[in-house]
Amino acid sequence: QEYTGLKMKVLEWAPKARESLEGKLPADANVFLVPATLRPETMYGQNAVFVSPKITYGIFKASDTDYYVITHRAARNMAYQGILFKEGEFPSVTEIDGSAMIGTLVNAPLSVHTGGVRVLPMESILPTKGTGVVTSVPSDSPADYVMTMDLRKKAAYYGIEQEWAELEIIPIIDTPTGDLIAKSLVESLKISSPKDTVQLEKAKDTAYTEGYYKGRMKIGAWSGQSVEQAKPLVRKHLIDEGLAFPYAEPERKIVSRSS
Ligand code: ZZB
Question: How far apart are CA 243 and CA 111, in angstroms?
Answer without folding.
Answer: 12
